[in-house]
Specification:
The protein is α/β, with parallel strands linked by helices. It has 10 helices and 16 strands. The two termini are 35 Å apart.
């Protein structure tokens, strides 16, 4: 997949670009609904003997437009988004910088610059996609702005259990620890990637050494607590338990939650290494214990619960 970053106005010449079938949207999470749109573009491109493309934006428009709810943390940060689109066999990814200048474009100016101007011959988007200043352009008016330069297709809302699958819904599920339901809507396990950094090494002294994982500040993390996770290191997956929180038994002034992972059946020095943590199910809320002995007893119960969880998953 070729990735092209663009700002308005871009300098690409349409006639030098391949004819493409393109899916357009912000696609935070690339959940099952988004996948319908993207897979539709990939399949149609094959049928038309064209290249497939995805247009997305960065940062989220809410950040620039200063809306009440600003999506400054992402279910799929840009790097993860690129990795998932690669797996979906997308040929070209256009990342358009969303800034104030872009937000002021009329629907026609946006279409002329970023659809006609990128040699897109067929555009696919969700039913609720809008474009142009204050979202004045929508999928119903798109043929007017297309002026027969390209065709378009609308993908209807995707539902599970008669409920629309959306990034907003997934954000709510993550905030309440409902990881399994969020994973169902995503069509995969939520994952974050980060680097192992030095911690206080207290876990080792109580028999549960942990990898302290530092992730980018734009990553949306789930509710604090203890989770069953899988840790991928150098293409090998290990079961483990993660504590996401401020470790109240030992700290009273921590505000930002940290990720600590105890990796089952693993030994080795992995400081400075990159790990991928896949979140599977919420075990319990983080709590303050009266002392180390009570903490250890709880960790042992957590470990057994997680091992039982993965054992049951493997037999399903």
């Amino acid at each position: 997949m070729r990735t092209i970053e663009l700002t308005y106005p871009h300098t690409l010449v349409a006639t030098t670009l391949p004819e493409t079938v393109c899916a357009i949207g912000f696609f935070d999470g690339i959940h099952k609904g988004h996948q319908q749109v993207i897979k539709g573009a990939v399949q149609t491109a094959k049928e038309k003997n064209m290249e497939s493309a995805v247009i997305t934006f960065h940062p989220h428009p809410s950040v620039i437009l200063k809306q009440d709810t600003q999506h400054v943390k992402y279910i799929t940060p840009l790097r993860e988004k690129q990795e998932i689109l690669q797996k979906l066999a997308v040929d070209r990814l256009y990342i358009i910088t969303f800034n104030e200048q872009l937000s002021l474009l009329s629907p026609q100016e946006f279409i002329d610059q970023f659809i006609k101007g990128l040699h897109i011959k067929h555009l696919i988007a969700g039913f609720d996609y809008t474009y142009g200043h204050k979202g004045k352009g929508n999928m119903d008016t798109l043929p007017t702005y297309a002026q027969r330069a390209f065709t378009s297709e609308v993908i209807d809302k995707f539902q599970i259990d008669e409920e629309k699958v959306s990034s907003t819904k997934i954000r709510h599920l993550l905030a309440t620890g409902k990881i399994e339901k969020a994973n169902e809507l995503l069509g995969r396990s939520l994952h974050v990637t980060g680097t192992v950094v030095e911690g206080d090494k207290r876990g080792k002294t109580i028999g549960y050494p942990t990898a302290n994982i530092e992730v980018n500040e734009d990553v949306l993390l789930p509710q604090s607590g203890v989770y069953a996770v899988k840790v991928v290191y150098k293409n090998t997956s290990y079961d483990g338990m993660a504590n996401l929180g401020v470790k109240p038994t030992f700290h009273s002034d921590e505000k930002e939650p940290a990720i600590e992972v105890n990796i089952f059946d693993f030994e080795g020095d992995i400081y400075g290494e990159e790990l991928k943590v896949e979140w599977y199910t919420f075990i319990r809320e983080e709590k303050k214990f009266s002392g180390v002995d009570e903490l250890i007893a709880q960790i042992k119960r957590d470990e057994q619960n997680i091992k039982d969880y993965f054992k049951n998953q493997s037999t399903m």
